[in-house]
Write a structure and sequence with these properties.
By secondary structure, the protein is an alpha/beta fold. It has eleven helices and twelve strands. Helix content is 37%, strand content 16%.
């Protein structure tokens, strides 16, 4: 099981020593044109996690490819680029531009809660990206959809090589004067409160598609990572925990090795069969 970062939760150029502790680094989402993002305040703590309304702030595709990506490539860590946009063409053009960049994979961000939703369906976006690149494509999905497994099947049929599950969920917090703490009003909730939702999404999408999954959402310990493996994740990504504990990648990796022993599990493949529900077992044996 590899340990990555969740997109937007680590600035590798500002903290290269943390990025080098990862098995792969995922960039912030890159859009065709530069974006300033949402007005401040755009980050706030909550009782069980964090709200953010960054709004996909990024330097834009041209500047990223010319300036940021060459510097990231010198870190010596495999690079995944998170790609965003507002139409299928936006996504596809960025994917095409990454074709000879030497990156390991592309994460197609289909689920950011802090910008207007893409006009095109998730499957149409993935299909356009598939036509534009031969690089591995991981579709990042939201558990806010009433049937995330249905979306997972659609993007798998469109050519996705894997899934990233899950993104933040839209939420609101109020200050002492009963006003939203974020200038935007709402933002994406991350942290421990997200973990049970993420485990469910990983489980149903694993059962629906069998695709490799990067599981994320509230992972703070090696035991958390093992639970994601038990639900079907092949790899995991750390998010909110990195803000409070930059040493989390090394710590979680060490704790994960101990968690396997404590659970009597020999390897991740064995763990991935442990969390099947009785209903699923009956379907398999029927």
């Amino acid at each position: 099981m590899r340990i990555l970062n969740a997109s937007g939760c680590l600035d590798a150029l500002a903290a290269p020593e943390v990025a080098r502790e990862l098995d792969a680094f995922v960039t912030k989402t890159v859009t065709p044109l530069p974006r300033e993002g949402s007005a401040p305040p755009r980050i706030a703590e909550t009782a069980h996690g964090m709200l953010n309304a960054i709004g996909l702030a990024n330097p834009g595709r041209e500047h990223f490819l010319a300036e940021h990506l060459p510097r990231l490539s010198r870190l010596g860590v495999p690079i995944w680029v998170s790609v965003g946009g507002f139409t299928a063409a936006d996504y596809a053009e960025t994917c095409a531009g990454l074709g000879r960049s030497g990156i390991e994979a592309i994460e197609v961000n289909l689920s950011c809660p802090n910008v207007e939703e893409a006009a095109d369906a998730a499957a149409a976006i993935v299909a356009a990206c598939r036509r534009a690149t031969a690089l591995p494509l991981y579709a990042k999905l939201s558990a806010a959809h009433p049937d995330v497994a249905e979306v997972a099947r659609a993007v798998a049929a469109a050519g996705a090589d894997g899934l990233s599950l899950i993104n933040t969920l839209r939420a609101t917090a109020l200050d002492e004067q009963l006003r939203p703490v974020l200038a935007r009003g709402s933002g994406g909730l991350s942290g421990p409160a997200l973990k049970p939702i993420a485990l469910h999404a990983v489980s149903v999408c694993h059962e629906a598609t069998g695709l490799p999954i990067v599981g994320m959402g509230g992972i703070q310990s090696g035991r958390d990572a093992l639970e994601f493996a038990a639900c079907g994740a092949r790899d995991v990504a750390l998010g909110t925990v990195l803000f409070a504990d930059p040493g989390a990648p090394a710590r979680v990796r060490t704790e994960l090795a101990a968690a396997y022993v404590d659970a009597g599990v020999a390897n991740p493949d064995d763990a991935r069969s442990l969390a099947k529900s009785p209903e699923t077992e009956r379907k398999v044996t029927a």
